Automatic annotation (TrEMBL):
Source organism: Methylopila jiangsuensis
This protein's name: Coenzyme A biosynthesis bifunctional protein CoaBC
Pfam families recorded: DFP (PF04127), Flavoprotein (PF02441)
HAMAP family according to UniProt: CoaBC
A GO-annotated cellular component: phosphopantothenoylcysteine decarboxylase complex
Family: In the C-terminal section; belongs to the PPC synthetase family.
InterPro entries membership: CoaB-like_sf, CoaBC, DNA/pantothenate-metab_flavo_C, Flavin_trans-like, Flavoprotein
Molecular functions per Gene Ontology: FMN binding; metal ion binding; phosphopantothenate--cysteine ligase activity; phosphopantothenoylcysteine decarboxylase activity
Binding site for CTP: D279, K289, P306, D307, I308, L309, F326, K340, K344
Cofactors demanded by this protein: FMN; Mg(2+)
Region (Phosphopantothenate--cysteine ligase): 192-404
Pathway entry: Cofactor biosynthesis; coenzyme A biosynthesis; CoA from (R)-pantothenate: step 2/5; Cofactor biosynthesis; coenzyme A biosynthesis; CoA from (R)-pantothenate: step 3/5
Native organism taxonomy: Bacteria, Pseudomonadati, Pseudomonadota, Alphaproteobacteria, Hyphomicrobiales
Keyword Magnesium: yes
Length: 404
């Protein structure tokens, strides 16, 4: 998904604290976020905390002389791909339904032509009140989308029910669904398998053989495939980044666990092997922590891990129509990628330079080359998100009318 501009209206409820995590989650996915903080919301979260997370000015006052010199509330309302209200209080919903415009938030909401997504949060009695139900029904009829509320404990001691704001990741999923609603979905009806991240091969209960893969490129590919309409299974090694929205995630540790998860996820129309699978594992890992001793370091006997990419690419039955591997190299990138393409039997190799000075491992940008049996296509440096979108678009075009 290309970077989208989100206008976040933070309403005055105790759930406003979740808006801080929501901002972080949206930014992680490459979206830009501007925030309007209502006066009541400023009682729960500070402009400083919101502005620090958005890296943008925080807008609060309809009559701010600086912001309103160019009719700022109209600019805010129009310069957004999606308006998100979180928390959407009963008061904000009522103002929207009545068409009121007596503060910056309600004025921007009345002036926007962008889609609106509301995440309600209020006491269960307020949510069930006929006035709120009427307002929500009317707003739905006008095209406003809703996520939540959920059932759970309230801020009021000992009270629970339907009224909790949805968790940030659920809101992110709704945001991305709303943004993708009118976009082409060239992989609609397709099944896509993606592997991502490193594998950890145990030495003993506290030590592993591992690598520096962050999983950012693989996770971005899974997200891009989902945005293109695919049913996506992401098999992920140990990573510290969030799961992509709208994707089935299978979490594994070792190469053998990843192989089993990949086999279970087939058949698929497209298999993308972006994980940095460890080539070797310890022949027999220790059941107890290995201690230092007078004899010096222990001798570790290594054996080869299963070749997951080659195993799928060379399947006699049930081979995906398009199998894509990745070649992360530190030298002779294209030569090694061509060799890997021939050895593995896959259709394409996405080659990239991961030498220490490239900044690719753990970074946000990538420079890749698409290697096939016929040609090498070198791409300019892009964000990993942009690389993922471009690759998924290319894979969708290559799939044409074939399916598993």
């Amino acid at each position: 998904m290309t970077q989208s501009r989100i206008l976040l209206v933070i309403g005055g409820g105790v759930a406003a604290y979740k808006a801080l995590d929501l901002i972080r989650r949206l930014k992680e996915r490459g979206h830009s976020v501007r925030a309007i903080l209502t006066p009541a919301a400023a009682e729960f979260v500070t402009p400083l905390s919101v502005g620090t997370l958005t890296a943008e000015p925080v807008f609060q006052d309809l009559f701010d002389l600086t912001a309103e010199q160019d009719v700022g509330h109209i600019r805010l309302a129009r310069d957004a791909d999606l308006v998100v209200i979180a928390p959407a209080t009963a008061d904000l919903l009522a103002k929207m339904a009545a068409g009121l415009a007596n503060d910056l938030a309600s004025t921007a909401l009345l002036a926007t032509t962008a889609p609106v997504l509301a995440a309600p949060a209020m006491n269960p009695t307020m949510w069930a009140h006929p006035a709120t139900r009427r307002n929500v029904d009317w707003l739905r009829g006008q095209g406003v989308a809703f996520v939540g509320p959920e059932t759970g404990l309230m801020a009021e001691r000992g009270e629970s029910g339907l009224g909790r704001m949805s968790e940030p990741l659920a809101i992110v999923a709704a945001v991305e669904a709303a943004l993708n609603r009118d976009r082409p979905q060239p992989l609609k009806g397709r099944r896509v398998l993606v592997t991502s991240g490193p594998t950890h091969e145990p030495i003993d209960p506290v030590r592993v053989l591992a690598n520096r893969s962050s999983g950012r490129q693989g996770h971005a590919l899974a997200a891009a495939a989902a945005a293109a309409g695919a049913e996506v299974t992401l098999v992920s090694g140990p990573v510290s980044i969030p799961d992509p929205a709208g994707v089935r995630v299978v979490k594994v540790e070792s190469a053998r666990e990843m192989q089993a998860a990949v086999d279970a996820a087939l058949p698929a129309d497209l298999a993308i092997f972006a994980a940095a699978v460890a080539d070797w594992r310890v022949e027999a890992d220790s059941a107890q922590k290995i201690k230092k001793g007078a004899g010096g370091p222990p001798t570790l006997t290594l054996v080869e891990n299963p070749d997951i990419l080659a195993g799928v690419a060379r399947r006699a039955e049930g081979r995906p129509p398009l199998v894509v591997g990745f070649a992360a190299e530190t030298e002779n990138v294209i030569e090694h990628a061509r060799s890997k393409l021939a050895r593995k039997g896959c259709d394409l190799i996405v080659a990239n330079d991961v030498s220490p000075d490239s900044g690719v491992m753990g970074g946000d940008r990538n420079t890749v080359a698409l290697v096939s049996a016929e040609e090498v296509e070198r791409w300019d440096a892009m964000s990993k998100q942009a690389v993922a979108e471009a690759l998924v678009a290319r894979f969708a075009a290559l799939l044409g009318g074939t399916s598993a």
